[in-house]
Amino acid sequence: MTTLTKIFNPTVGRKALMAMTGLFLCMFLIEHLYGNLMMLYNDGGEAFNKYTEDMTHNLLIRIVEYALFGGIIIHAVDGLFLTLANRKARPIGYAVNKGNENSTWFSRNMGLTGSVILFFLIIHLRTFFFAHRFLDAPESMYQSVVIAFKDWWYSAFYILSVLFLGMHLNHGAQSAFKSLGISNKQYAPIFKACGTGFALIMTIGFGMFPILFFFEILK
Amino acid sequence: MTDTLNLTLKIWRQSNPTSQGKFESYKLDGVSTHMSFLEMMDVLNEKLIKENKEPIAFDHDCREGICGMCSMYINGRAHGPLAGTTTCQLHMRHFKDGETITIEPWRAKGFPVVKDLVVDRTAFDKIMQAGGFVSVNTGSPAEANSILIPKPVADEAMDGAACIGCGACVAACKNASAMLFVSAKVSQLALLPQGQVERTERVLKMVQTMDDAGFGNCSNTGACEAECPKEISVAHIARLNREYLVASLKGE
Amino acid sequence: MITLDSKIPPGPLAEKWTKYRSTVKLVNPANKRHLEVIVVGSGLAGASAAASLAELGYKVKVFCFQDSPRRAHSIAAQGGINAAKNYQNDGDSTYRLFYDTIKGGDFRSREANVYRLAEVSASIIDQCVAQGVPFAREYGGTLDNRSFGGVQVSRTFYARGQTGQQLLLGAYSALSRQIGKKQVQMYNRHEMLEVVMIDGKARGIIARDLVTGKLERHFGHAVVLATGGYGNVFFLSTNAMGCNVTANWKAYKKGAAFGNPCFTQIHPTCIPVSGDYQSKLTLMSESLRNDGRIWVPMKEKDTRKPIDIPENERDYYLERRYPAFGNLVPRDVASRAAKQACDEGKGVGPSGLAVYLDFRDAIARLGQPVIAARYGNLFEMYEKITGEDPYKTPMRIYPAVHYTMGGLWVDYNLMTTVKGLYATGECNFSDHGANRLGASALMQGLADGYYVIPYTIGDYLSGEIMTKAIPTDHPAFAEAENNVKERIDKLLSIKGNQTVDDFHKKLGKVMWDYCGMARNEEGLMKAKVMVQQIREEFWKDVKIPGTAFEFNTELEKAARVADFLELGELMIDDALNRKESCGGHFREESATDKGEAKRDDNNFAYVAAWEFQGDNQPAKLHKEPLKFEEIHLAERNYE
Fold first, then answer.
1. Contact predicate C322/C638, CB 8 Å
2. Can you tell me the distance from the alpha carbon of C192 to that of C63, in angstroms, rounded to the nearest whole number?
3. Which of A71, B136, C588, C621 shows its CA 20 to 30 Å from the CA of C274?
4. String of b and e for C257-281 (b: at least 16 CB within 10 Å)?
């Protein structure tokens, strides 16, 4: 067994890969939220547009962008394979299974919440990232945001997806530390609290914009 | 509270590993609330034999919660609804009169059904054979007190060592993962000074054998800890991950 | 015709074992590779023996009826393991452990064997620690000890309330290592049903694969039985459901003498019977007696709640009768005292067959957290089973069958009267006399397996190095297999009306009523006839569903109960023969004025070894006189 196959073995190693990519994506979320917060200046998007403009021209950010897409793909593909492996581990299921009595719904449904997030991500990227990077959208990024959130179904879908993201993060963030072996009895409750806190901040942070724009508190 | 219960039991029947199983329902009246769950099964079996029906095969032995032989997925929970309890120590006072109780075998690729509620757990033995030991021959080992072990370390090792190998962790896990079982042993021996020499090799081999047996991976849902009759902490799984990752980077 | 030769080495007691080990015949490593040993049973004695023999280089096959060797009933031992380490500086020594064990056994065990046991006890702890057994420790990192009944030193090592489990898992890990190395071949879910004899020597076994029902033949140059005790003859006991006498009984029928079959230990602290559906009794560790006080109400048939009974109306009968040892008197004494209290009508609980074990004073003295740390898991277990909280109300306890000191007669080498057939651990009779001290069963099982049999088996196998493995198509194997098959077919063909459990319960009740905590001639005579009748009825009316070639738990049970039905009569015969009281064997005819057991050393200072004479024939009694050279025979006084 070579070191590479050992470290990416199906149970421990590949879960560590999930954890690492997951945590990496969490860092991106922080950065993304920071950018979004520029919109709170309510200055017609001046600060926000400048920020996105700067990001586009920063070489380092362009490199990280590729890492980011790589991270998303690895996280999703690895997750898919692990899910399939897990299905195989129990060929016949239970007739009665009360998982809710021993674990939380979101901890058991990371695949589902993850899939929703992935679907959202594709649409989200299409609306904002691709539109500006590759299709030379005529309006500014800020205007794109305003337009998108005027649409009630887009806003609703956005909020719903952010809620799923919150659930995904609530379990995923603290779980990642366990998968990487960083957690122990003393730290586990701290990681758990931090994970939940992080999930809450992200949910509120991202989730407030559609509301603010839809009700035209931000213009 | 009434002293007796009338129950409907929906039980998985399967005559051998390759046959198609199905659920059968049985009525059982006048079950004393002081009975243990397995005593209730005894009463049902005695009744079935007298009615010229085949009794239900289920694993059991010590009936005091330590041998780990009893299994049974009762009403959607490994070892039934009570935390920290094996099926043999579950008593009928925790059920309601008129209740329908569904009883299934452990379900996992690593635990094929032998008959009815009996499953084959030799995969666990194989994992232990791969490295769940300290390689010390019988002979003249060092004086027991020559290596001092801090009480908290000994206690934590004992927390892991308390595992009874019943397989409830696998049964309850949505991924049929055996990580809690494996981590309990890896953790015990990784903590103790006696386990240091083989620390790297042990974790690699045990995890490899676990993977080969077809158990799933760990999603950290914590269901195993919640259903473990000995309430073994998932913190051991984190330690196993750490041990494994370090070991695989270090190489043998 | 057998002869009893205990083969005790000459020389002073303290030097016998050392000298024996230094002079015993050895088998060289090259020859060990060709010698095969069968070990039946995977508990402390079996697993430790199998692992140690495999380490030496023998080819070993291990059989257990459970689904994994880790589940043998040694796992259920709670309290601890004795060893003469003298870590507590309280005056312990090999000699004192030896003396306590002999005295605890009421002077009915062999000095040389017991001394050896005490001698190797310290090494067992070293060995287990080296294996990674997480014994309880002091804050300074050293091993912790507690004290147990019948002794005045603290020499018991423990791992929470799960010492048996931890020691067994240690032995199991050593065994697993050898299985992984292919030095041991493991047969789970296999039950031994016959010993194969060739030219007067044990040469193998017939085992039934419990999953497929297939009968298998296995050869071994020697066969080691480590099959535990036969307490389940009483139906209700603290033994696991599967514990049985079958392997021992087959050995007995092939010429292995059965030693002291009537010596049964009744454990004083078990949870009382709650109904006739009861399948087994649960033991509460003897360690509870360190802090719990045992009492009954002074008034007969007192139905008040225990907390409503004032101090001056409570009879702490053990403290009253045995002030020196108080609640820590040996098991047989404590059990009998509880029975006497209940016989006087002072028993408590719905059945009147229980006494209180009260922690009120200990909780007041030490605080609930300390008690919880010491006994938390036991308290939880009690609450799970009874639905009562022992922190608030005293536990109700009653004696229950727990251990059998009797077993296959063995010599100093642990060989039975059949050549090449060994018995280790609880299934032999050797070390505990008429009563076993707490925390000594684990010690004996591991002593036999780790430190005795690896040496003594060499004495026999050194003479077998020229014996080639005998092919299992040998007529003796065929005949043995056929006998097993016939017996199974016979059981299945009866198709009667009563279940195996019906018979087992009947047998158990007779044994408990007449051959239990107190025995007398009249009752025993009556019981003998009753057991014969039950046996006869069994072979006419037992109902076993299913076939021989499938996973058939009723068939397994039936075959075991059939043997218990024969063993029961032998126990009664032995109890009838031994007209004295000693240890766990209390003959009402032989008591002091105070009602204490009265030994008769002039007439009964011997091991009763019974030889099988044929089905339905009375067994033949052989006597091995017990010579006490080191110890002065004394009345066992715990007052």
1. yes
2. 7
3. C588
4. bbbbbbbbbbbbbbbbbbeebbbbb
Domain match, C368 and C409 both: no
Rounded-to-integer distance, Cα C209 and Cα A199, Å? 55
User: Which residue in the block uniquely carries the two structure tokens 């003897």?
Assistant: C286
Q: In the Cβ-directed half-sphere of A25, how many Cα atoms lie within 13 Å? A: 25
Counting the structural domains of chain A, the total is 1
Task: Tell me the CATH number at A157.
Answer: 1.20.1300.10
Instruction: Give CA–CA dist A98/A83, Å, rounded.
Output: 20
Report the DSSP beta bridge partners of residue A172: none
- Chain A residues within an 8 Å CB radius of B233: 185
Say which CATH topology domain B4-114 has: Ubiquitin-like (UB roll) (3.10.20)
Contact B188 C543 (CB under 8 A): no
**In chain A, positions 25-84, which contact chain B (CB-CB < 8 Å)?**
82
Active site residue C331: yes
Residue contacts between B and C (CB atoms, under 8 Å): 221
Two tokens, residue C345: 């009508």
Instruction: pLDDT band for C635, please (50, 70, 90 cuts).
Output: confident
CB contact under 8 A, B210 and A16: no
Q: Is A1 part of the contact surface with chain B (CB cutoff 8 Å)?
A: yes
**Segment A104-108 long-range contacts (CB within 8 Å, at least 24 positions apart):** A104/A171, A104/B221, A105/A167, A106/A167, A106/A168, A106/A170, A106/A171, A107/A171, A107/A175, A107/B219, A107/B220, A107/B221, A107/B222, A108/B174, A108/B219, A108/B221, A108/B223
Q: What mean pLDDT is reported for chain C?
A: 95
CB C97 within 8 A of CB C222: no
**Domain housing A173:** 10-84+105-214
Q: How many Cβ atoms are within 10 Å of C233's Cβ, its own excluded? A: 32
Q: Is residue C632 part of a domain?
A: no
A80, A83, A84, A86: CA torsion to nearest 10: 160
Instruction: Please report the ipTM that was assigned to this predicted complex.
Output: 0.97
Polymer length in residues for chain B:
252
Residue A207 maps to a domain: yes
pLDDT digits (tens, 9 = 90+) for A54-103: 988 889 988 999 999 999 999 999 999 999 999 999 999 999 999 999 99
Mind listing the pLDDT tens digit for each residue in C469-486? 999 999 999 999 999 999
Q: Give the helix/strand (H/E) hosting B245.
A: helix B235-250
Residue A61, token pair as written in the block: 């950010």
pLDDT at A51 over 80: yes
Which uninterrupted H or E stretch holds C195?
strand C190-198
Three-state DSSP at C272 gives coil
The tokens for C554 are 């009723």
Give residue-wise pLDDT tens across range C353-369.
Answer: 999 999 999 999 999 99
Q: pLDDT tens-digit profile of B18-51?
A: 999 999 999 999 999 999 999 999 999 999 999 9
Residues C297/C304, Cβ–Cβ less than 8 Å = yes
Q: Quick check: A110 contacting B, CB < 8 Å? A: yes
3-class DSSP state of C166: helix
- The 10s digit of each residue's pLDDT in C49-78 is 999 999 999 999 999 999 999 999 999 998
Cα–Cα distance, A176 to A187 (Å, whole number): 13
**Is the CATH number of domain B121-136+147-250 3.40.50.1110?**
no
Question: What is residue C373's predicted lDDT score, i.e. its pLDDT?
Answer: 83
Q: How is residue C426 written in tokens? A: 């609880």
- Residue A94 φ then ψ, to 5°: -85, 150
For residue B207, the chain A residues in CB contact (below 8 A) are: 9, 11-12
Inter-chain touch C241–B158, beta carbons under 8 Å: no
Closest CA to A184 of C455, C261, B187: B187
CATH number of the CATH domain containing C174:
3.50.50.60
